[in-house]
Amino acid sequence: MISQQFNHTKAVAQNALILEARDFIEPSSVEAQNQFHRYVEEFKDPTIHEINIFDLNGRIIVSSIESKVGQSVDSASLKVLSDNEFYLISSEAGRNIILSYIPLVFNGSVLGAVEIKSELVHLLDPIQYEMNQITLRLIFIGLVILFLYYVIEWQFVIKPINYLKKQAQNLEQGNLNEPISIKTSDEFGFLANFFDQMRAKLKLSWSRITEFNEELELKVGEKTIELRNEQAKLTSSIQSLRFGFIIVNAGKNIMMSNVAASEIMGVSNDKIDFDFLVDYFGQSFDVTDSYNRSIGYKQSVISPEIDSHGKFLKVSMLPIISEEQVIGSVMVIEDVTEAVLLQRNKEEFFAVASHELRTPLTSIRGNMSLIQDYYKDQISSKEVMNMIVQAYQSSIRLISIVNDFLDASKLEQGKGLGQFEKVNLVNVIDEIIKDLNTTAKVKGLELIFSSDKQLPAVFGDESRLKEVVYNLVGNAINYTQEGRVEVEVGVDGDYLKVVVKDTGVGITAQNQGLLFKKFQQAGKSIFSRENNSSTGMGLYISKLLVNAMHGEIGLLDSSDKGSTFFFTIPIAK
Amino acid sequence: MKLMIVEDDSFMIQLYHNLFKLEGFEVELAKDGLEALDKLKTAEKVPDIILLDIMMPRMDGFEFLRQRNKVDKLKNIPVVVLSNLFSEEDQEKIKKLGAKGFITKSEQDPKELVKKVKEYLPKS
Predict the structure, then answer these.
(1) Nearest residue on chain B to A362, judged by CA atoms?
(2) Domain A340-411 has CATH 1.10.287
(3) Minimal CA separation from B98 to chain A, in Å
(4) Backbone angles phi, psi at A324, to 5 degrees
(5) Among candidates A355, A367, A399 on the partner chain, residue whose Cβ is nearest the Cβ of B15
(6) Average pLDDT of A180-202?
(7) Which of A89, A205, A376, B57 suits B7 as a labelling partner, its CA being 20 to 30 A distant?
(8) Candidates B12, B15, B84; nearest CB to A354
(9) pLDDT tens per residue across span A230-264
(10) How far apart are CA A39 and CA A16, in angstroms?
(11) Whole-prediction pTM value?
(12) Would you tell me how many other CB atoms lie within 10 Å of the CB of residue A25?
């Protein structure tokens, strides 16, 4: 800047002075002085304070300040005369002054020089200027640093934070698909990575939840339909029940009452309420008490058959328990009139059959026996006597059939057995063998009984066990024409096993299946039996008896060489 | 020996009547419990043994036994129950009511019946 100002003053000097240099070098004439002033005025720059022209001796010959003519310039200024233009900066009355020195050259010779004193316009104090320059640079550098800092901060802090903020908002809005990534290795990179992992986990969880939710909704839908179907099924099932079904809630309100209920009680459905039920059953079934017991104590109340309004009813009151809470009670009314009458008829029939059927038979038997025992002499005809004997035997057989029939019926109902006790089965068999020995001998059969020594006692009804043994051994003798009947008894696990083996005609495979059936006698029905001493009920009753005593009975083996029957009875503990 | 037969079936009455007469008994008949009770109460000579049916109209065998037990002059007469219906409970009941024994009618021939009845007769 200073050199620019110097060049400017130089130009001023050249323009103003050099053209007239020759004249200026000449000793100052008034005219020359005036002319110089005119030039100076003409070119005067407000910044130029003073222009002096001095000769080789340093004496000012022309000056813009008249008083300066004739004075000498500073000796330092003389170096311009060796053809070196230069400038100096100095201070004058607190102002910075630039002193420019330009040599005056004419025809290659230095004639003198021009001194121009002008104000240093732009930079008053070079040190201050330099200082200012440094300050400016510092400010600039500072600004640049600030700018760079901002850029860096924006790039590395604000941007990632904004990004993460945006992504967080994204996540909040449920957009979990966009991956979160900042590719740096600093905390933000780590944070973003962490964020992304969180997003991925969230996405996975969310998709699972969504999936589960959909599945759940589907299931709930299915279950709702299922439930409705079940309810419909249940309702129509309840309606179609043949017994009365009434649901009473915890507030004694009738929630449901089916068709059978109103039919059994003979009232229309809308008439059935709690008070009606109380009145209807009266003392035969205490509805209030039963209801209270089912509601209060979770008890089921089941009545015996009650005689109500000409019908036999069975009434039950059962608590409806949901989540361990009683929410109501179900009243079930069963019309058992038919069953009761049927049972009564059956029992009556047995009583009648037992008494009314056997009484006349006993009379026949008694009278036939009486004739044979007391009036034999009075009957001369052998044939008549024979008829009497046959009538007597038939009556006995008929009595046996009736007895067996009644016995079987009782056993079928689970009745007819006495108290079970420890029974010595060997003694029982021994007794029967002795009893039947005569019969066997008459037929020329060998009757053999063999048993292990010291057999344990069995548990059962002794008289009934006798019946079973009598039946099996009796049958064996009956159906064997020659040979022998062997009876064996031994331990078989927790049982004693009795085996009865004969050398009889055997039973065909076809007829084996008919054994142990009612009224069967090895395939021949009661109407076509060959042997007239049997009722055809023996094996059937034996099976009922053995089963009732928790044993088994059956045919082990049969051929034309004979049959083998067995039965088992549990050993007493 | 005097024997009373309490039985509602006329055929049976006849049979037993014949039988015990043939065996030398003095036989008195009653068609049911009530008639038997009346006859016994008014009888000058009570029987040595009573054969009693169970199922009878008006008053059955059980009730007869109960009533008999209330009458001093009757309660020591041995009673043998003749019936075709002997359930376990019935047998218990009969024993409790003080009957000497019971015989299933249809299972016995007359001669055997006489033999059994004689066993129940008081030893004199």
Answers:
(1) B106
(2) yes
(3) 22
(4) 65, 10
(5) A367
(6) 78
(7) A376
(8) B84
(9) 888 888 888 888 888 999 888 888 888 888 888 88
(10) 6
(11) 0.49
(12) 18
